[in-house]
Amino acid sequence: MYLFFDEIQRINAWENAINALRVDLDCDIYVTGSNAYLLSSEYSTYLSGRCVEIKMLPLSFNEFLYFHDFGVRETKSALGSVRKQVFDKNGEQYDLREVFEAFLRFGGMPGIADVGLDQEKALVLLDGIYSTVVVRDILEREKRRGQKRITDPFLLRKIIMFLAD
């Protein structure tokens, strides 16, 4: 039996319920949530040290190629030099640098695989991720912990966009 809980840290006394399930049931329990709410060390403390952290990372360039059905092949020029070319599932050929620039532009979020390389759709997806990470996670964490609050979220967005650029 497997139990999955996402964003459980939003529920009061969640750690008591998880610990009770762990004791009462023969099951694997997976708790996921934003790092902005709880750091892995906090999870470990709440769960009596009985947890294993699984870090989730964005897609690598190789995974990005796979998600978009690209294959990389070496081709020889007329003069004998070897270079790598990218081919899609229809056999269309692309320059490796061009595809890498797309990876840099769209990033390695797995949701990109669902929208493809359509720039408009990808930017909507990425803006949603930004809003979730910055607005919900960072700003709400500050409020919850009683720390100094960011008073101008629009300025924060401009700073983040400047740093990302």
What does this structure look like?
This protein has 165 residues and is of the alpha+beta class. The chain folds into 3 domains: 2-46, no CATH class; 61-108, no CATH class; 120-164. 48% of the residues lie in helices and 15% in strands. It has helices at 14-24, 40-46, 61-67, 96-106, 112-115, 119-145, 153-164, and strands at residues 2-6, 28-32, 71-76, 82-87, 93-95. The strands form 2 sheets. A 3-stranded antiparallel beta sheet has the order 3-4-5. The chain has a two-stranded parallel ribbon with strand order 1-2. Strand 4 (82-87) and strand 5 (93-95) form a beta hairpin. The radius of gyration is 22 Å and the shape is flat. The N and C termini lie far apart (45 Å). The model has no long low-confidence stretch (mean pLDDT 80).
Give me the secondary-structure topology.
Blueprint lengths: L1 E5 L7 H11 L3 E5 L7 H7 L14 H7 L3 E6 L5 E6 L5 E3 H11 L5 H4 L3 H27 L7 H12 L1
Parallel strand pairs: 1-2
Antiparallel strand pairs: 3-4, 4-5
Quaternary class: single chain
Major sheet: size, sense and barrel closure? 3 strands, antiparallel
Radius of gyration based on Cα positions: 22 Å
End-to-end span in angstroms? 45 Å
